[in-house]
Write a structure and sequence with these properties.
A hairpin with a 2-residue loop joins strand 10 and strand 11 (402-409). The protein has 20 helices and 14 strands. The chain has helices at residues 3-18, 21-24, 34-45, 50-57, 62-66, 69-74, 97-114, 123-144, 153-160, 169-179, 191-194, 196-219, 224-246, 272-280, 323-335, 364-368, 376-381, 426-432, 445-448, 466-470; strands at 81-82, 253-255, 268-270, 287-291, 300-304, 317-320, 340-344, 350-351, 356-357, 389-399, 402-409, 421-425, 433-439, 456-458. The strands form 2 sheets. Strands 1, 4, 5, 6, 7, 8, 9, 10, 11, 12, 13 and 14 form a 12-stranded mixed β-sheet that branches. The radius of gyration is 25 Å and the shape is globular. The protein has 472 residues and is of the alpha+beta class. It has a single domain (81-470), classed as Alpha-Beta Complex (Cathepsin B, Chain A). 44% of the residues lie in helices and 14% in strands.
Length: 472
């Protein structure tokens, strides 16, 4: 290697080091001095309770040490309003909670209409189209951002996960509106759809390669139309990857069913869109996204940048309202016998062994001797929390007209929780639920009017933007 080359590499490394956020945060006055370290050591060793806590923590899971036994003893899974649902679903090792929750919200309509004990829609079918649409949207974004340098905030965020599993309610709406649905037996799961880690690695690598080629074409002076011509060739390969791992989605299919009273329906041919319209028929466009995002202004309409999975549809849009409004609409929905799709931070205060979601179910402060709690707003803006899982409310237990706890249908199979269900206490709803999907007819006029306003655009680095990537 030449001396000039070595000098260039050293210079680049020095620039990178100087620009490092860690280095920029350093200060001669802010270092850990021997005196400060001694002070920390003495403070720890003078705390008489620490030896016992040390012995306990080093030999046990902290969850077992901190779980609040009084809350577990007081817990019960009794609800005075429950909605009939089918068998518990299982998303396996994939990030498709948003799709399973969407289907779990819709399938009671089919079961009731056709008098079925249970019914499942094909998640593989919709997943195929989701992956193809996401791939196209990613490549379109690379064309749009081709003039931006690597290191641009938007470019970097999109390159982190070109085509992940995560999604949102609006994805369900847009995909079903465009492609319809099919029963599970028409296009069943494959290994790749149920175990997406390895598959996603290959697909994302291919899309990053395509992004590099598109940027090179732009740099060489090619027009946007020429880049889209190249993109279409890239999508042929994406389609092949999907078809080889998932199978090809049917354009038409024949289906029959047996009802609970043993009545067998004659075989009938459907297109996927026809099946949705005739067998389900819920007007998805009437379902409105309501957020509790305490980091931005309430009673406003927002749009998330780069949050759509279809290039020719809108980004995620939502009305931002206080949590009490979300709870009121949720209660009205469930009491009207309608399952409700919601998004939450499933990683907080979750006692999975019994399926209990309750504020303070783990008491970390009593173990460590100091407060580690944050407000809901602090958890969002300091990135301690985000809506990372979607589920469905299928029941509620009320007292004097107020919700005490909620029945939650999950999509993690029947081995976890209470045979696949969780009990969400109302104080947990306050703290960790961030979004509900409701029928727009529930909105008062002054709130409904917000939908007619121009949405304020939130950047891709807003804390809530993680909904697109982390709902898994």
């Amino acid at each position: 290697m030449s001396q000039t080359r070595i000098l260039l590499l050293v210079t680049v490394a020095a620039i990178m080091l100087i620009s490092s956020p860690l280095l920029q945060a350093q200060s001669p006055q802010g270092g850990l001095t021997p005196g400060l370290i001694e002070e920390l050591r003495v403070n720890f060793e003078n705390n008489g309770r620490n030896p016992a806590v040390y012995n306990a923590l080093t030999a046990n899971d902290i969850a077992n040490l901190t779980v609040n036994r009084d809350k577990l003893i007081a817990h019960n899974a009794i609800f005075n309003k429950e909605i009939t649902t089918g068998e518990i679903t299982n998303q396996e090792s994939s990030g498709r909670c948003w799709m399973f929750a969407g289907f779990n919200m819709l399938r009671p309509k089919v079961m009731d209409k056709l008098k079925l004990d249970s019914f499942k829609m094909s998640t593989n079918y919709l997943f195929f189209w989701d992956k193809l649409e996401k791939s196209n949207t990613f490549l379109e974004s690379m064309i749009e951002l081709a003039a931006k340098p690597l290191g641009d905030r938007d470019v970097d965020l999109l390159l982190e996960d070109p085509c992940g599993d995560g999604g949102w309610w609006s994805y369900v709406v847009d995909l079903i509106s465009k492609y319809g649905v099919v029963p599970e037996q028409v296009m069943p799961e494959t290994f790749a759809t149920s175990h997406t880690g390895g598959f996603n690695g290959i697909l994302n690598r291919k899309l990053r390669k395509d992004a590099s080629e598109l940027r090179d074409l732009h740099a060489s002076g090619k027009t946007a139309n020429e880049l889209r011509g190249a993109k279409n060739k890239m999508l042929r390969e994406v389609y092949s990857i999907l078809a080889l791992n998932f199978g090809e989605p049917p354009m038409k299919f024949t289906w029959r069913f047996e009802s609970k009273d043993s009545t067998v329906a004659p075989p009938q041919e459907f297109t996927p869109k026809q099946f949705y319209e005739e067998m389900i028929g819920v007007k998805l466009e009437d379902q409105i996204v309501i957020f509790d995002h305490p980091g931005v202004e309430y009673f406003k309409y927002f749009e998330m940048s780069w949050s759509g999975n279809l290039a020719d549809r809108n980004n995620l849009r939502f009305i931002n309202l206080p949590i009490d409004s979300l709870k009121r609409y949720a209660l009205e929905t469930v009491l009207a016998n309608n399952p409700l799709y919601f998004a939450c931070d499933i990683g907080k205060d979750n006692y999975g062994a019994k399926g209990v979601l309750q504020k303070g179910i783990y008491d970390y402060s009593s173990v460590y001797g100091f407060d580690v709690s944050l407000t809901k707003r602090e958890r969002i803006i300091y990135r301690d929390s985000s809506p990372n899982h979607a589920m469905v409310l299928t029941g509620v237990d009320t007292l004097n007209g107020q919700a005490v706890k909620w029945k939650v249908e999950n999509s993690w199979g029947d081995k976890g929780g209470d045979k696949g269900y969780w009990t969400m206490y109302d104080d947990w709803f306050d703290e960790y639920v961030y979004c509900v999907i409701i029928d727009k007819k529930l909105l008062p006029k002054e709130v409904s009017a917000i939908l007619a306003t121009e949405p304020s655009r939130l950047p891709a680095w807003d804390p809530m933007w993680s909904v697109m990537r982390s709902l898994k």
